[in-house]
Amino acid sequence: MNESNVYQPLNEYRQLWQKIVKVNLGEQDELKSGKNILIGIIKNLKVCTSLNGDNMAFASLIDFNGEINLIFFPKTWVRYEDKINEGDIVALKGKIDINNSNKNRSFIASKMLDIDRLLKKSFLGKSRKRGYK
Fold first, then answer.
1. Residue 44 within any structural domain of the chain
2. Is residue 133 in a domain?
């Protein structure tokens, strides 16, 4: 699949993404720790068990500029596990975390935002059913 096909489902949300997302995932070295909102496609979703025996998940989020690893800790995962699937287009609130030992960046999701509601609030048009497999 070529690159333009990967972003095609996300194109419907491009104006919203441009308005809300304030970080460039294509410039990983420039990403700073802190709270952000990301909009993108969920890829490589993997559910696992935490040390305490609770389910949590790891995934990647791809947007128009790049990709970042996602972490859904147990309290967040239990709230949204029925709403997050591989290939979905999502809006996530959370924080960028930088691993001190290897400088890898991850996004720790704390809340899933209603992307269709965001789209309507920003008067950018109607959205359709989201999903990309």
1. yes
2. no
Strands (E) across 63-118 are located at: 67-72, 89-98, 105-113
pLDDT class for 4, splitting at 50, 70, 90? low
Summarize pLDDT for 56-97 with one digit per residue, the tens. 999 999 999 999 999 999 999 999 999 999 999 999 999 999
Q: What angle do CA 95, 122, 124 make, to 5 degrees?
A: 120
Q: Can you give the pTM of this predicted structure? A: 0.84
In a 10 Å sphere around its CB, with 0-12 CB exposed, 13-18 middle and 19+ buried, how is residue 69 labelled? middle
Instruction: Find the domain containing 107 and state its range.
Output: 3-25+32-121
Q: What angle do CA 34, 20, 40 make, to 5 degrees?
A: 85
- Give the integer Cα–Cα distance in Å for 118 and 102: 35
Is 132 inside a domain boundary?
no
CATH assignment of the domain containing 115: 2.40.50.140
Q: Which residues contact 54 (CB under 8 A, 6 or more apart)?
A: 74, 77, 78
* Cβ pair 95, 71 in contact under 8 A: no
Decide if 11 is inside a domain: yes
Q: How many domains does the chain have?
A: 1
